């Protein structure tokens, strides 16, 4: 380089290279600023805290496309928020059923001890003895109060399903939970007011119960992954077991304590208010709106649900239920027929197990509560096992798994009911109690039977299928006490033989119908695309042949 001009000069051929005396400058690499670890942790913690505050404040979360998924494990539940939603929902479902079951137990203790020489006593002597004849309901009045719940549920089930589809489970189910809690708190006042007031309170409790199964279907379809349908159904449907596990022993202890039978209703009402307050604050209708749900979990939940979601956080506009196509589908009728048989057995256990133990086996009230809670505890764990195994077993085809689990549940219960009919409750009390408990426990396998089939076949319309199942449950709630009132009004052992045989035959017959027509494949009407519908129809015919 020329020192004067600064131009580069090519050296002559053969000449030596010029020697530079100036030292070469040392080039330091540029260091980009990096956030400190503490600053990064603070940012993650701030993100998690803001999500948590948003979740319990009831706000929906605005999700951005470039949202960072770091810090998900800072939350105690990590990427498993869907399971917290499932657990809270299960407790709320259990609370609504527990509010109904309170009367199934407390009516035994409400009038007090009936004196032997009642006809020779005055009203003042009755009151001094602690007996209240106005609360000693006859068999007809008891059946009326049982059926009032069923009528309330029947009246409300389809309107509540329409509201559920329009407003979502958070608002509809939350409001119904508060209504159930208030009705339960007012039951002691209604009982002291008169029989009509008691009917109204029970009717309102039934209206709240009408949404339980549709809510179960809605939460499963929106919050469960396709591979975890079985465990979601098992846990959510276990509210039928959790409710008596809590209510029966607690009611037995409170009824025999100084607090009296009224405390049973006050306790259940307060618990319902607490649980549904938590539900309304924490629950969201869709996982995309929940602040604690990270993108990784959202992708898992939405995978394979093109019929429900058109993209992350984008619900399809069309939610029209294909009523005609659903009612023409044999797989739907298989589910509904199985549901009828299932709930005939379930309602007999829920409504009349305490009656059978106390009036037929003559066990005292405290022991009746404990004995009534044993079978739901065992049944709860059977449901968990059935739900997990039905998802994980791969060497058996899905239709065969549905048949096996449903037969274990309903066929097993039917056989055990008939076995119980052959036992003599006068001389074989222990055997009768064991068979009765076993007949209820084995029904836990239904989570891998028709319940799972309803989700597999109906997909995004499972809430409507569950509404039909809920309607049948209400019919069974109405028919079961009516049948008992006609056949066994005085709870004589000979009359209970007829009741048990009737329910056993119903269970076996409906299970056979389900096994013949059941399906595990999504129905053609679960998609709105004509090309996909035709492809699914061809594939289903090929699969069946």
TrEMBL record:
Key words of the record: Membrane, Transmembrane, Transmembrane helix
Domain Major facilitator superfamily (MFS) profile, residue spans: 90-522
Membrane topology: Multi-pass membrane protein
GO cellular component: membrane
UniProt cross-references to InterPro entries, sorted A to Z: MFS, MFS_dom, MFS_trans_sf
Compartments, record wording: Membrane
Residue spans crossing the bilayer: 83-110, 145-164, 171-189, 195-219, 231-251, 263-282, 330-350, 362-382, 403-422, 428-451, 463-484, 496-517
GO MF annotations, alphabetized: transmembrane transporter activity
UniProt entry tagged with the keyword tRNA-binding: no
Predominant location category: membrane
Region (Disordered): 1-49
Source taxon at top rank: Eukaryota
PROSITE patterns in the record: MFS
PANTHER family for this protein: PROTEIN CBG23364-RELATED
Protein name per its UniProtKB record: Major facilitator superfamily (MFS) profile domain-containing protein
Organism the protein comes from: Panagrolaimus superbus
Organism phylogeny: Eukaryota, Metazoa, Ecdysozoa, Nematoda, Chromadorea
């Amino acid at each position: 380089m020329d020192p004067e001009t600064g131009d580069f000069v090519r050296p002559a051929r053969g000449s030596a290279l010029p020697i530079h005396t100036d030292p070469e400058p040392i080039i330091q690499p540029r260091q980009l600023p990096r956030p400190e670890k503490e600053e990064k942790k603070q940012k993650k913690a701030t993100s998690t805290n803001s999500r948590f505050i948003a979740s319990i404040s009831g706000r929906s979360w605005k999700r951005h496309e470039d949202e960072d998924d770091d810090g998900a494990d800072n939350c105690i539940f990590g990427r498993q928020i869907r399971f917290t939603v499932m657990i809270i929902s299960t407790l709320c479902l259990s609370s609504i059923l527990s509010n109904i079951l309170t009367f199934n137990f407390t009516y035994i203790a409400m009038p007090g001890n009936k004196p032997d020489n009642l006809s020779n006593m005055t009203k003042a002597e009755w009151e001094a003895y602690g007996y209240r004849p106005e609360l000693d309901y006859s068999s007809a009045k008891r059946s009326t109060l049982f059926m009032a719940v069923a009528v309330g549920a029947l009246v409300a089930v389809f309107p509540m399903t329409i509201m559920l589809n329009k407003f979502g489970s958070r608002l509809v189910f939350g409001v119904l939970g508060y209504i159930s809690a208030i009705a339960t708190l007012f039951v002691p006042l209604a009982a002291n007011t008169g029989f009509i007031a008691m009917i109204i309170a029970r009717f309102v409790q039934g209206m709240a119960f009408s949404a339980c199964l549709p809510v179960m279907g809605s939460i499963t379809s929106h919050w469960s992954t396709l591979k975890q349908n079985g465990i979601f159904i098992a846990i959510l449907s276990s509210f039928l077991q959790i409710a008596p596990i809590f209510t029966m022993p607690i009611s037995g202890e409170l009824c025999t304590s100084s607090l009296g039978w009224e405390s049973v209703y006050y306790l259940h009402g307060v618990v319902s208010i607490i649980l549904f307050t938590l539900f309304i604050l924490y629950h969201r209708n869709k996982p995309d709106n929940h602040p604690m749900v990270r993108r990784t979990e959202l992708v898992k939940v939405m995978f394979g649900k093109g019929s429900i979601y058109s993209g992350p956080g984008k619900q399809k506009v069309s939610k029209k239920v294909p009523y005609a196509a659903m009612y023409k589908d044999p797989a739907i009728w298989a589910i509904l027929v199985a549901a009828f048989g299932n709930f005939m057995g379930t309602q007999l256990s829920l409504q009349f197990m305490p009656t059978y133990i106390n009036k037929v086996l003559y066990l005292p009230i405290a022991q009746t509560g404990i004995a009534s809670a044993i079978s739901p505890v065992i049944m709860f764990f059977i449901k968990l096992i059935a739900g997990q195994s039905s998802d994980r077993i791969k060497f058996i085809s899905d239709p065969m798994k549905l048949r096996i689990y449903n037969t274990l549940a309903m066929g097993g219960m039917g056989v055990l009911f008939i076995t119980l009919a052959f036992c003599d409750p006068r001389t074989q009390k222990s055997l009768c109690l064991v068979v009765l408990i076993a007949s209820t426990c084995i029904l836990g396998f239904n989570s891998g039977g028709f319940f799972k089939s309803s989700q597999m076949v109906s997909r995004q319309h499972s809430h409507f299928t569950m509404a039909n199942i809920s309607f049948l449950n209400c019919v069974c709630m109405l028919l079961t006490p009516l049948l008992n009132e006609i056949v066994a009004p005085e709870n004589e052992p000979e009359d209970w033989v007829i009741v048990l045989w009737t329910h056993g035959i119903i269970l076996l017959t409906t299970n056979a119908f389900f096994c013949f027509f059941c399906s595990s494949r999504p129905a053609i009407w679960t998609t709105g695309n004509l090309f996909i519908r035709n492809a699914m129809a061809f594939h289903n015919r090929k699969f069946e042949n």
